[in-house]
Amino acid sequence: MWLEILLALVLGFVIYWFVSKDKEETLPLEDGWWGPGVRPTAGEDESIRPFKVETSDEEINDLHQRIDKVRLTPPLEDSRFHYGFNSNYLKKVISYWRNEFDWRKQVESLNRYPHFKTKIEGLDIHFIHVKPPQLPSGQTPKPLLMVHGWPGSFYEFYKIIPFLTDPKNHGLSDEHVFEVICPSIPGYGFSEASSKKGFNSVATARIFYKLMLRLGFQQFYIQGGDWGALICTNMAQLVPSHVKGLHLNMAFILRNFYTLTLLLGWRFGRLFGYTKRDMELMYSLKKIFFNLVRESGYLHIQSTKPDTVEKFSTWTNPEFRDLEDGGLERKFSLDDLLTGVMLYWTTGTITSSQRFYKENMRLGNRHEGIKVHVPMGFAAFPCELIHVPEKWVKSKYPKLISYSYMPRGGHFAAFEEPELLAQDIHKFMGLLERQ
Fold first, then answer.
1. Active site residue 411
2. Which of 44, 96, 340, 378 is surrounded by the most beta carbons within 10 Å?
Protein backbone atom coordinates (compact mmCIF):
# COMPACT_ATOMS: atom_id res chain seq x y z
CA MET A 1 0.00 0.00 0.00
CA TRP A 2 2.73 2.46 1.01
CA LEU A 3 4.73 1.58 -2.10
CA GLU A 4 1.68 2.30 -4.27
CA ILE A 5 1.18 5.64 -2.53
CA LEU A 6 4.86 6.51 -2.98
CA LEU A 7 4.77 5.57 -6.68
CA ALA A 8 1.59 7.62 -7.16
CA LEU A 9 3.21 10.63 -5.50
CA VAL A 10 6.34 10.30 -7.65
CA LEU A 11 4.26 9.89 -10.82
CA GLY A 12 2.13 12.87 -9.84
CA PHE A 13 5.23 14.99 -9.27
CA VAL A 14 6.71 14.00 -12.64
CA ILE A 15 3.47 14.82 -14.45
CA TYR A 16 3.20 18.14 -12.61
CA TRP A 17 6.81 18.99 -13.45
CA PHE A 18 6.37 18.32 -17.15
CA VAL A 19 3.06 20.18 -17.33
CA SER A 20 4.13 23.21 -15.30
CA LYS A 21 7.81 23.69 -16.13
CA ASP A 22 7.13 25.88 -19.16
CA LYS A 23 3.90 27.42 -17.94
CA GLU A 24 3.87 31.09 -18.89
CA GLU A 25 3.22 32.50 -15.45
CA THR A 26 3.07 36.26 -14.98
CA LEU A 27 3.34 38.57 -11.99
CA PRO A 28 0.10 40.24 -10.85
CA LEU A 29 0.07 43.86 -11.98
CA GLU A 30 -1.63 45.25 -8.86
CA ASP A 31 -1.33 48.96 -7.96
CA GLY A 32 0.40 51.16 -5.40
CA TRP A 33 0.70 54.53 -3.70
CA TRP A 34 4.19 55.61 -2.64
CA GLY A 35 3.72 59.30 -2.00
CA PRO A 36 3.37 60.84 1.46
CA GLY A 37 0.19 60.21 3.44
CA VAL A 38 -2.88 58.45 2.13
CA ARG A 39 -3.85 58.25 -1.51
CA PRO A 40 -6.05 61.21 -2.45
CA THR A 41 -9.58 60.49 -3.63
CA ALA A 42 -9.15 62.74 -6.65
CA GLY A 43 -7.55 61.21 -9.72
CA GLU A 44 -3.81 61.57 -10.22
CA ASP A 45 -2.49 64.38 -12.39
CA GLU A 46 -1.24 62.57 -15.50
CA SER A 47 0.29 65.59 -17.21
CA ILE A 48 3.85 65.38 -18.53
CA ARG A 49 5.83 68.47 -17.59
CA PRO A 50 9.09 69.70 -19.15
CA PHE A 51 11.97 69.73 -16.66
CA LYS A 52 15.34 71.45 -16.73
CA VAL A 53 18.43 70.68 -14.67
CA GLU A 54 19.56 73.83 -12.87
CA THR A 55 22.20 74.97 -10.41
CA SER A 56 22.99 78.10 -8.43
CA ASP A 57 25.91 79.97 -6.90
CA GLU A 58 24.68 78.92 -3.45
CA GLU A 59 24.75 75.25 -4.37
CA ILE A 60 28.26 75.44 -5.80
CA ASN A 61 29.61 77.56 -2.94
CA ASP A 62 28.20 75.13 -0.39
CA LEU A 63 29.93 72.25 -2.16
CA HIS A 64 33.26 74.12 -2.29
CA GLN A 65 33.10 74.91 1.42
CA ARG A 66 32.54 71.25 2.23
CA ILE A 67 35.39 70.14 -0.04
CA ASP A 68 37.72 72.67 1.59
CA LYS A 69 37.02 71.08 4.99
CA VAL A 70 37.64 67.48 3.94
CA ARG A 71 39.98 65.39 6.10
CA LEU A 72 41.61 62.30 4.63
CA THR A 73 43.31 59.35 6.29
CA PRO A 74 46.69 58.50 4.71
CA PRO A 75 46.67 55.15 2.86
CA LEU A 76 48.83 52.20 3.82
CA GLU A 77 52.02 51.89 1.84
CA ASP A 78 51.57 50.08 -1.47
CA SER A 79 47.86 49.53 -0.77
CA ARG A 80 46.79 50.82 -4.20
CA PHE A 81 42.98 50.20 -4.40
CA HIS A 82 42.96 47.02 -2.27
CA TYR A 83 41.61 48.88 0.77
CA GLY A 84 39.13 50.96 -1.19
CA PHE A 85 39.63 54.34 -2.81
CA ASN A 86 43.29 55.27 -2.32
CA SER A 87 43.35 58.61 -0.52
CA ASN A 88 46.52 59.76 -2.30
CA TYR A 89 44.67 59.56 -5.61
CA LEU A 90 41.55 60.94 -3.94
CA LYS A 91 43.49 64.15 -3.25
CA LYS A 92 43.88 64.60 -7.00
CA VAL A 93 40.18 63.97 -7.59
CA ILE A 94 39.19 66.42 -4.84
CA SER A 95 41.53 69.06 -6.20
CA TYR A 96 40.03 68.64 -9.67
CA TRP A 97 36.50 68.71 -8.25
CA ARG A 98 37.22 71.90 -6.31
CA ASN A 99 39.31 73.85 -8.81
CA GLU A 100 38.65 72.58 -12.35
CA PHE A 101 35.35 70.73 -12.54
CA ASP A 102 32.74 73.02 -14.12
CA TRP A 103 29.32 71.97 -12.82
CA ARG A 104 27.55 74.69 -14.80
CA LYS A 105 29.05 73.33 -18.02
CA GLN A 106 27.94 69.82 -17.06
CA VAL A 107 24.43 71.08 -16.34
CA GLU A 108 24.35 72.47 -19.89
CA SER A 109 25.48 69.06 -21.15
CA LEU A 110 22.77 67.30 -19.12
CA ASN A 111 20.16 69.58 -20.70
CA ARG A 112 21.14 68.70 -24.25
CA TYR A 113 18.47 65.99 -24.14
CA PRO A 114 14.83 66.80 -23.28
CA HIS A 115 13.88 66.15 -19.64
CA PHE A 116 10.39 65.60 -18.26
CA LYS A 117 8.53 64.73 -15.07
CA THR A 118 5.15 63.11 -14.42
CA LYS A 119 3.31 61.84 -11.34
CA ILE A 120 2.81 58.07 -11.10
CA GLU A 121 1.56 56.31 -7.97
CA GLY A 122 2.23 59.43 -5.93
CA LEU A 123 5.82 59.95 -7.06
CA ASP A 124 7.31 62.56 -9.37
CA ILE A 125 9.05 60.44 -12.02
CA HIS A 126 11.89 62.01 -14.00
CA PHE A 127 12.94 60.81 -17.45
CA ILE A 128 14.64 61.91 -20.64
CA HIS A 129 12.97 61.21 -23.98
CA VAL A 130 15.19 61.43 -27.05
CA LYS A 131 13.71 61.13 -30.52
CA PRO A 132 15.69 60.52 -33.74
CA PRO A 133 16.90 63.68 -35.50
CA GLN A 134 15.94 62.06 -38.81
CA LEU A 135 14.38 58.83 -40.07
CA PRO A 136 14.88 56.79 -43.24
CA SER A 137 11.90 57.03 -45.56
CA GLY A 138 8.98 54.87 -44.48
CA GLN A 139 10.54 53.95 -41.14
CA THR A 140 9.15 54.57 -37.67
CA PRO A 141 11.35 54.67 -34.55
CA LYS A 142 11.29 51.79 -32.10
CA PRO A 143 10.49 52.87 -28.52
CA LEU A 144 13.27 51.67 -26.22
CA LEU A 145 13.19 52.07 -22.44
CA MET A 146 16.66 51.93 -20.86
CA VAL A 147 17.00 51.53 -17.08
CA HIS A 148 20.12 52.27 -15.00
CA GLY A 149 21.30 50.79 -11.71
CA TRP A 150 23.35 51.76 -8.63
CA PRO A 151 25.51 53.82 -8.27
CA GLY A 152 24.49 55.08 -11.68
CA SER A 153 21.86 57.30 -13.25
CA PHE A 154 20.17 58.19 -16.51
CA TYR A 155 23.44 59.93 -17.41
CA GLU A 156 25.03 56.51 -18.07
CA PHE A 157 23.12 56.41 -21.35
CA TYR A 158 24.18 59.78 -22.77
CA LYS A 159 26.96 58.29 -24.89
CA ILE A 160 24.96 55.35 -26.23
CA ILE A 161 21.90 57.39 -27.23
CA PRO A 162 23.40 58.72 -30.52
CA PHE A 163 24.22 55.16 -31.63
CA LEU A 164 20.53 54.29 -31.17
CA THR A 165 18.70 57.44 -32.29
CA ASP A 166 21.08 58.44 -35.10
CA PRO A 167 22.98 55.26 -35.97
CA LYS A 168 23.89 56.11 -39.57
CA ASN A 169 25.84 59.21 -38.52
CA HIS A 170 27.66 57.17 -35.86
CA GLY A 171 28.95 54.30 -37.95
CA LEU A 172 26.05 51.84 -37.55
CA SER A 173 23.31 50.67 -39.89
CA ASP A 174 20.06 52.62 -39.83
CA GLU A 175 18.01 49.46 -40.30
CA HIS A 176 16.85 50.02 -36.71
CA VAL A 177 16.33 53.52 -35.32
CA PHE A 178 15.11 54.05 -31.78
CA GLU A 179 13.52 56.75 -29.68
CA VAL A 180 15.00 56.32 -26.24
CA ILE A 181 13.34 56.84 -22.86
CA CYS A 182 15.63 56.80 -19.81
CA PRO A 183 13.83 57.22 -16.47
CA SER A 184 15.42 57.74 -13.08
CA ILE A 185 14.57 55.00 -10.59
CA PRO A 186 12.48 56.56 -7.77
CA GLY A 187 14.89 57.71 -5.06
CA TYR A 188 17.70 58.21 -7.58
CA GLY A 189 18.56 61.69 -8.84
CA PHE A 190 15.54 63.66 -9.97
CA SER A 191 12.86 60.99 -9.37
CA GLU A 192 11.07 61.37 -6.06
CA ALA A 193 11.82 58.76 -3.40
CA SER A 194 9.11 56.57 -1.91
CA SER A 195 7.68 57.69 1.43
CA LYS A 196 6.59 54.13 2.19
CA LYS A 197 8.42 50.92 3.04
CA GLY A 198 8.41 48.10 0.52
CA PHE A 199 9.18 50.00 -2.69
CA ASN A 200 11.04 47.39 -4.74
CA SER A 201 11.94 46.45 -8.31
CA VAL A 202 8.43 45.14 -9.11
CA ALA A 203 6.84 48.43 -8.03
CA THR A 204 9.41 50.28 -10.13
CA ALA A 205 8.67 48.06 -13.13
CA ARG A 206 4.95 48.78 -12.81
CA ILE A 207 5.59 52.54 -12.64
CA PHE A 208 7.83 52.44 -15.72
CA TYR A 209 5.19 50.41 -17.57
CA LYS A 210 2.63 53.10 -16.72
CA LEU A 211 5.13 55.72 -17.92
CA MET A 212 5.39 54.03 -21.33
CA LEU A 213 1.60 53.85 -21.62
CA ARG A 214 1.37 57.52 -20.69
CA LEU A 215 3.82 58.32 -23.49
CA GLY A 216 1.52 56.50 -25.92
CA PHE A 217 3.46 53.23 -26.30
CA GLN A 218 1.32 50.10 -26.06
CA GLN A 219 4.29 47.95 -27.12
CA PHE A 220 7.96 48.71 -26.63
CA TYR A 221 11.48 47.34 -26.11
CA ILE A 222 13.43 47.44 -22.85
CA GLN A 223 17.11 47.26 -21.89
CA GLY A 224 19.01 47.27 -18.60
CA GLY A 225 21.95 46.27 -16.45
CA ASP A 226 22.39 46.14 -12.67
CA TRP A 227 19.04 47.08 -11.04
CA GLY A 228 17.86 47.95 -14.53
CA ALA A 229 18.21 44.30 -15.52
CA LEU A 230 15.94 43.21 -12.69
CA ILE A 231 13.43 46.01 -13.26
CA CYS A 232 13.23 45.19 -16.98
CA THR A 233 12.87 41.49 -16.18
CA ASN A 234 10.00 42.32 -13.82
CA MET A 235 8.34 44.41 -16.55
CA ALA A 236 8.46 41.41 -18.87
CA GLN A 237 6.99 39.25 -16.08
CA LEU A 238 4.21 41.77 -15.39
CA VAL A 239 3.14 42.69 -18.93
CA PRO A 240 4.74 40.31 -21.46
CA SER A 241 2.22 41.23 -24.17
CA HIS A 242 3.48 44.83 -24.08
CA VAL A 243 7.22 44.00 -24.17
CA LYS A 244 8.29 43.26 -27.74
CA GLY A 245 11.88 42.51 -26.79
CA LEU A 246 14.18 42.47 -23.76
CA HIS A 247 17.93 43.09 -23.89
CA LEU A 248 20.14 42.76 -20.81
CA ASN A 249 23.83 43.00 -19.95
CA MET A 250 23.34 41.44 -16.51
CA ALA A 251 21.01 38.71 -15.26
CA PHE A 252 19.83 37.68 -11.80
CA ILE A 253 19.69 33.87 -11.96
CA LEU A 254 18.95 32.55 -8.47
CA ARG A 255 16.59 29.57 -8.62
CA ASN A 256 18.38 27.53 -11.22
CA PHE A 257 19.66 23.97 -11.57
CA TYR A 258 22.82 25.17 -13.29
CA THR A 259 23.97 27.24 -10.33
CA LEU A 260 24.27 23.95 -8.45
CA THR A 261 26.80 22.73 -11.02
CA LEU A 262 29.45 25.33 -10.19
CA LEU A 263 31.47 23.01 -8.00
CA LEU A 264 31.49 20.29 -10.68
CA GLY A 265 31.73 22.59 -13.68
CA TRP A 266 35.51 22.96 -13.56
CA ARG A 267 35.83 19.22 -14.30
CA PHE A 268 32.61 18.44 -16.16
CA GLY A 269 31.69 21.77 -17.69
CA ARG A 270 31.08 20.37 -21.16
CA LEU A 271 28.49 17.97 -19.74
CA PHE A 272 26.56 20.96 -18.41
CA GLY A 273 26.76 22.80 -21.72
CA TYR A 274 29.48 25.30 -20.76
CA THR A 275 31.60 26.59 -23.63
CA LYS A 276 35.35 27.07 -23.53
CA ARG A 277 34.78 30.80 -23.07
CA ASP A 278 32.38 30.12 -20.18
CA MET A 279 35.09 28.06 -18.49
CA GLU A 280 37.64 30.86 -18.94
CA LEU A 281 35.29 33.43 -17.42
CA MET A 282 33.94 31.29 -14.57
CA TYR A 283 37.00 29.58 -13.14
CA SER A 284 38.95 29.45 -10.97
CA LEU A 285 36.31 29.25 -8.25
CA LYS A 286 38.81 30.47 -5.66
CA LYS A 287 39.34 33.69 -7.60
CA ILE A 288 35.59 34.20 -8.06
CA PHE A 289 34.84 33.50 -4.40
CA PHE A 290 37.41 36.00 -3.12
CA ASN A 291 36.31 38.59 -5.67
CA LEU A 292 32.69 38.29 -4.53
CA VAL A 293 33.66 38.54 -0.86
CA ARG A 294 35.89 41.54 -1.59
CA GLU A 295 33.28 43.38 -3.67
CA SER A 296 30.01 42.58 -1.87
CA GLY A 297 30.48 44.26 1.52
CA TYR A 298 28.39 47.21 0.32
CA LEU A 299 25.61 44.75 -0.57
CA HIS A 300 25.27 43.50 3.00
CA ILE A 301 25.38 47.02 4.42
CA GLN A 302 22.76 48.37 2.04
CA SER A 303 20.55 45.29 2.35
CA THR A 304 20.41 45.66 6.13
CA LYS A 305 21.19 49.22 7.29
CA PRO A 306 21.16 51.33 4.11
CA ASP A 307 20.97 54.70 5.84
CA THR A 308 24.74 54.48 6.53
CA VAL A 309 27.83 54.38 4.34
CA GLU A 310 33.31 53.30 -5.28
CA LYS A 311 32.53 50.93 -7.69
CA PHE A 312 33.61 52.48 -11.00
CA SER A 313 37.11 51.08 -10.54
CA THR A 314 36.86 47.37 -9.73
CA TRP A 315 33.45 46.86 -11.36
CA THR A 316 34.98 48.06 -14.61
CA ASN A 317 37.95 45.72 -14.32
CA PRO A 318 38.90 43.79 -11.15
CA GLU A 319 42.60 44.15 -12.01
CA PHE A 320 42.30 47.92 -11.58
CA ARG A 321 42.59 47.43 -7.80
CA ASP A 322 46.31 46.83 -8.41
CA LEU A 323 46.77 50.37 -9.74
CA GLU A 324 47.53 53.45 -7.68
CA ASP A 325 44.71 55.39 -9.36
CA GLY A 326 42.28 52.46 -9.56
CA GLY A 327 42.27 52.75 -13.36
CA LEU A 328 39.38 55.20 -13.15
CA GLU A 329 40.57 57.44 -15.95
CA ARG A 330 41.34 54.55 -18.30
CA LYS A 331 37.66 54.21 -19.18
CA PHE A 332 36.01 57.36 -17.81
CA SER A 333 36.81 61.04 -17.55
CA LEU A 334 36.75 62.77 -14.18
CA ASP A 335 34.06 65.05 -15.59
CA ASP A 336 31.83 62.05 -16.29
CA LEU A 337 32.47 60.46 -12.90
CA LEU A 338 31.96 63.69 -10.97
CA THR A 339 28.77 64.43 -12.90
CA GLY A 340 27.43 61.12 -11.64
CA VAL A 341 28.46 62.04 -8.10
CA MET A 342 26.82 65.46 -8.44
CA LEU A 343 23.51 63.94 -9.52
CA TYR A 344 23.38 62.19 -6.15
CA TRP A 345 24.88 65.09 -4.19
CA THR A 346 22.70 67.91 -5.51
CA THR A 347 19.50 65.88 -5.15
CA GLY A 348 20.41 64.38 -1.77
CA THR A 349 19.45 60.89 -2.94
CA ILE A 350 22.37 58.64 -1.99
CA THR A 351 20.50 57.31 1.06
CA SER A 352 17.20 56.72 -0.73
CA SER A 353 19.07 54.98 -3.57
CA GLN A 354 20.75 52.62 -1.11
CA ARG A 355 17.42 51.76 0.53
CA PHE A 356 16.48 50.03 -2.72
CA TYR A 357 18.79 47.18 -1.67
CA LYS A 358 16.96 46.54 1.58
CA GLU A 359 13.58 46.57 -0.14
CA ASN A 360 14.71 44.01 -2.72
CA MET A 361 16.62 41.63 -0.44
CA ARG A 362 13.58 40.01 1.08
CA LEU A 363 12.95 36.27 1.26
CA GLY A 364 10.36 34.72 -1.01
CA ASN A 365 10.38 37.23 -3.87
CA ARG A 366 7.85 35.67 -6.24
CA HIS A 367 9.52 36.95 -9.39
CA GLU A 368 12.65 34.86 -8.74
CA GLY A 369 10.82 31.66 -9.71
CA ILE A 370 8.98 33.01 -12.75
CA LYS A 371 10.42 32.53 -16.24
CA VAL A 372 10.40 35.35 -18.76
CA HIS A 373 8.59 34.49 -21.98
CA VAL A 374 9.47 37.41 -24.23
CA PRO A 375 12.21 37.46 -26.91
CA MET A 376 15.50 38.19 -25.19
CA GLY A 377 19.06 39.18 -26.03
CA PHE A 378 22.04 39.09 -23.68
CA ALA A 379 25.46 40.74 -23.83
CA ALA A 380 28.05 38.99 -21.63
CA PHE A 381 30.78 41.50 -20.83
CA PRO A 382 34.01 39.78 -19.66
CA CYS A 383 34.60 41.97 -16.58
CA GLU A 384 31.06 41.73 -15.23
CA LEU A 385 30.95 40.75 -11.55
CA ILE A 386 29.66 37.25 -12.29
CA HIS A 387 29.70 35.55 -15.67
CA VAL A 388 26.31 34.08 -16.59
CA PRO A 389 26.61 31.30 -19.21
CA GLU A 390 24.07 30.97 -22.00
CA LYS A 391 22.60 27.84 -20.39
CA TRP A 392 21.86 29.78 -17.22
CA VAL A 393 20.26 32.66 -19.11
CA LYS A 394 18.09 30.35 -21.20
CA SER A 395 16.78 28.56 -18.12
CA LYS A 396 15.26 31.86 -16.93
CA TYR A 397 14.61 33.39 -20.36
CA PRO A 398 13.57 30.46 -22.62
CA LYS A 399 13.04 32.76 -25.62
CA LEU A 400 16.70 33.80 -25.69
CA ILE A 401 17.57 34.47 -29.33
CA SER A 402 20.88 36.32 -29.02
CA TYR A 403 23.78 35.67 -26.64
CA SER A 404 27.04 37.54 -27.23
CA TYR A 405 30.47 37.22 -25.63
CA MET A 406 31.57 40.84 -25.67
CA PRO A 407 35.27 41.51 -26.44
CA ARG A 408 35.82 43.91 -23.53
CA GLY A 409 33.98 45.86 -20.87
CA GLY A 410 32.54 45.48 -17.41
CA HIS A 411 29.55 46.27 -15.25
CA PHE A 412 28.72 49.78 -16.51
CA ALA A 413 28.39 48.71 -20.13
CA ALA A 414 26.46 51.66 -21.59
CA PHE A 415 28.76 54.14 -19.84
CA GLU A 416 32.00 52.31 -20.57
CA GLU A 417 31.47 50.69 -23.99
CA PRO A 418 28.48 52.48 -25.56
CA GLU A 419 29.25 51.51 -29.15
CA LEU A 420 29.70 47.83 -28.32
CA LEU A 421 26.45 47.68 -26.39
CA ALA A 422 24.60 49.56 -29.13
CA GLN A 423 25.94 47.12 -31.74
CA ASP A 424 24.59 44.21 -29.72
CA ILE A 425 21.18 45.85 -29.31
CA HIS A 426 21.06 46.35 -33.09
CA LYS A 427 22.13 42.73 -33.61
CA PHE A 428 19.40 41.49 -31.27
CA MET A 429 16.81 43.62 -33.02
CA GLY A 430 17.79 42.19 -36.40
CA LEU A 431 17.48 38.60 -35.18
CA LEU A 432 14.17 39.42 -33.51
CA GLU A 433 12.63 40.89 -36.66
CA ARG A 434 13.81 37.99 -38.83
CA GLN A 435 12.09 35.44 -36.64
1. yes
2. 378
